[in-house]
Write a structure and sequence with these properties.
The chain is of the alpha/beta class. The protein contains nine helices and twelve strands. Bound molecules: NADP nicotinamide-adenine-dinucleotide phosphate (NAP).
Length: 274
């Protein structure tokens, strides 16, 4: 459908340094188009985060997707955080409710939904590699889902801090302290990501993997990380990072617009971005 802008068009935007290269415009705008909503999803080049956030109120912008490096800093300038954003300590979506800016976080529920396409974490031994922003979101979601969690991180103090925040007997250690018992392994570190020295490498020795294990990597570029290649070769179930990208975006779209997301359309648009 051709783009049609009028005085009622609602603006949904994106704050993040990757605004020039993000591929999510196609996904959100395809969903907006399919539902015939009078909205458009556009990039914003943020210079001063506080002023940009004030701009959401003053320009009547409906909602904003937030990514690196603003997920934590933006919390200072919002009126309210929902429960998930508050305990995670990061925001990836801001909704403007009549001038009040409310921060939420869909990374945890998005990751859980992606994982559940292959494995149910309730009652399972889950190893989470990493203790950064994404790990925080995923750790709380896994604990809520009833997983038995071990958090391993290069900086052990961060793993300890997160394990204590999550509670529920969550264990912690360094990245080489892989436990004997692991049914689900999730890499939330940036290790193996494109444009880093570790691309094509994995933190997990293939000898640790076994065919009954489900292995998820939230790194979505490259789509097939070394960890997932090793896991697939051994016969593990694998969960790709782009599945989390899809689901965290589906939940964001619901918050952006207040309507049920057209999942198949969003999935199709994401596939066409490959
Ligand atoms: N698929 C999705 O929807 C989705 C969503 C969010 C994020 N992500 C991806 O997830 C990754 C992490 O994002 P984030 O926001 O959590 O980043 P972050 O807060 O900067 O955390 C980075 C994590 O990676 C670890 N790490 C970095 N380099 C390492 C290395 N060389 N060896 C071992 N550990 C290393 C860090 O360990 P230390 O604490 O020791 O530094 C930390 O645990 C990124 O690749 C991001 O693109 C994907």
């Amino acid at each position: 459908m051709p783009l049609s802008i009028n005085g009622q068009t609602r603006l949904i935007g994106f704050f993040g340094t990757t605004y020039k290269t993000s591929k999510m415009y196609a996904m959100y705008n395809a969903a907006i188009d399919a539902l015939g909503l009078n909205c458009i999803y556009v990039p914003f080049a943020v210079d001063d985060l506080q002023k940009a956030t004030d701009g959401i109120r003053h320009l009547g912008v409906a909602a904003i997707g937030i990514t690196i490096p603003y997920k934590t800093d933006i919390m200072l300038f919002l009126d309210e955080l929902d429960g998930d954003a508050a305990r995670i300590g990061a925001v990836n979506v801001v909704v403007n409710k009549d001038g009040r800016l409310i921060g939420s976080n869909t990374d945890g529920i998005g990751a859980l939904r992606a994982l559940r396409e292959q494995a149910e974490p309730k009652g399972r031994e889950v190893v989470l590699l990493g203790a950064g922003g994404a790990a925080r979101a995923i750790a709380f979601a896994l604990a809520d889902a009833g997983a038995s969690l071990t958090i391993l991180n290069r900086t052990v103090a961060k793993a300890q801090e997160l394990a204590e925040a999550v509670g529920n007997g969550t264990r912690y250690g360094g990245v080489d302290a892989l436990p004997q018992s692991c049914e689900i392994l999730i890499n939330t570190t940036s290790y193996g990501m494109a444009n880093t020295p570790e691309v094509g490498q994995s933190l997990v020795p293939p000898s640790f993997l076994h065919p009954d294990m489900t292995v998820m990597d939230i790194v979505s570029n490259p789509r097939e990380t070394r960890l997932l290649q090793d896991a697939a070769a051994i016969g593990c179930k694998v969960v790709y990072g782009y599945r989390m990208l899809l689901w965290q975006g589906v939940y964001k779209f619901e918050l952006f617009t207040g309507v049920e997301p057209p999942i198949a359309i969003m999935e199709q648009a994401m596939e066409s971005m490959r």
